[in-house]
Amino acid sequence: MERNSGQLKNAPIGVFDSGVGGLTVFREIMRQIPNERIIYFGDTARVPYGSKSQETVTRFSEQIVRFLKTFQVKTIVVACNTASAYALEALEEDCDVPILGVVKPGAKAAAEVTKNGRIGVIATEATIGSQIYTQYIKELNRNVTIYGKACPLFVPLVEEGLLQDPVTDEIARRYLAELIDLEIDTLILGCTHYPLIRSTLGRIMGEKVALVNPAYETALELKGMLADKGLLNQTPPALGSDQYRFFVSDKAEKFVRFANSIIKYGILSAKTVNIEEY
Ligand code: DGL
Fold it and tell me: Global pTM?
């Protein structure tokens, strides 16, 4: 059924990730476009995506898109770098609402920010292996060099809450040493979890290196895209209505605890769904 423009503006935005990491993207969206309703799905039963194959990540992502579409979402944000790298193209092929990944906005910002043309990307093994950041940045500027570094230990460190911790410091020093030697001036935080250890990463890289946060850039891009299409919600949802709803594929309590530790909103619950049914 065709929806009129009022219904479309009012429709929620679907946001998904492999688990809790996409909450950094959710957080930026709620800050930048506070009138929007959001349906968040975290695939907590099947996380991590970063060590899985393209085929598997694409299948998971397609199931989640089908689930989100049951809410008549007006747009979908793939709030996971790995899923954006591996599955975005396939998702775009048969999605009748606009769909946005986090990689392109991050790549665009980095291409604009760098002065010496030396950009570092830190991300999961899958995202680095896909070379997707390199591909997008090179499309914008052929004269830059991109250095990728997989940092798989950052995800469990963040999920353990070790955001300011000597262990995280030590691991970060080891991972980042080669990027410091390569004299990059821009570093893309190419994994959803990394903005949560931004201060550690910034301190180790030094103040001459600009950190690019794709979560922030994606929310900005989303805002612009909704405005261009006349789809921004102009009025805040009615009090008492569920502005933000959270769904996971496993362990809802753990998800809620983590969400409340990084988002000052008061998330009361998340519902568990059997995503394999979609
Ligand atoms: N959300 C993933 C990403 O941004 C990190 C966690 C995972 O490996 O699933 O790449």
Answer: 0.96
